[in-house]
Specification:
alpha/beta, Nucleotidyltransferase, domain 5, 7-stranded mixed sheet, two-stranded antiparallel ribbon
Length: 164
């Protein structure tokens, strides 16, 4: 405890800060955010087409473009109007650096919509394109569009090659 020894005879203001309550509050906030963060992950609810192919492991951090049943387009969790898609992709720093993206589309999306999106991706400079499907009918679960921790993820499967 700091006390003044001067001639005023009174007490000087305490110039020490007690950090224990501050640390306690910070730890409580840390615990609250650690518990709440996994509950904040949201995804786009889509019904993936099924493919009779084995599961492939993909990096959870890869860029993901989603087309839902209302034909809305999402890059990660951000909705992008279809008329602005090419401009957004051309100015996406990560996509231009990695030149890789995974595409998942709802089963009910018309084929023409998916083809138009794939053409836009090619014009935007995408070199590696993965299509996400529901492997061997594992499905029925909503597909999260970001990193999901322990939730199951669909796997990209290569498109089957037509028989000659």
């Amino acid at each position: 405890m700091a006390m003044s020894t001067g001639s005023s005879g009174g007490r000087a203001p305490l110039s020490e800060i007690n950090v224990t309550p501050l640390v306690d509050v910070m730890l409580v906030l840390l615990i609250i955010f650690m518990v709440a963060a996994p509950m904040m992950t949201a995804g786009v609810d889509i019904d993936l087409p099924q493919a009779n192919a084995p599961r492939m492991d993909i990096d959870e951090q890869k860029l993901l473009l989603t087309i839902d049943r209302e034909e809305r387009i999402f890059l990660g969790e951000d909705e992008i109007p279809s008329e602005r898609l090419e401009d957004v992709l051309l100015h996406n720093e990560r996509l231009q650096r990695e030149r890789e993206i995974f595409v998942q589309a709802d089963t009910n999306v018309p084929y023409g919509v998916v083809v138009r999106v794939l053409a836009i991706l090619r014009r935007a400079g995408v070199e590696d394109l993965g299509l996400v499907t529901d492997p061997m009918g594992a499905g029925g679960t909503p597909v999260p569009s970001g990193a999901t921790g322990s939730l199951p993820r669909p796997s990209p499967t290569p498109a089957p090659t037509p028989a000659p």
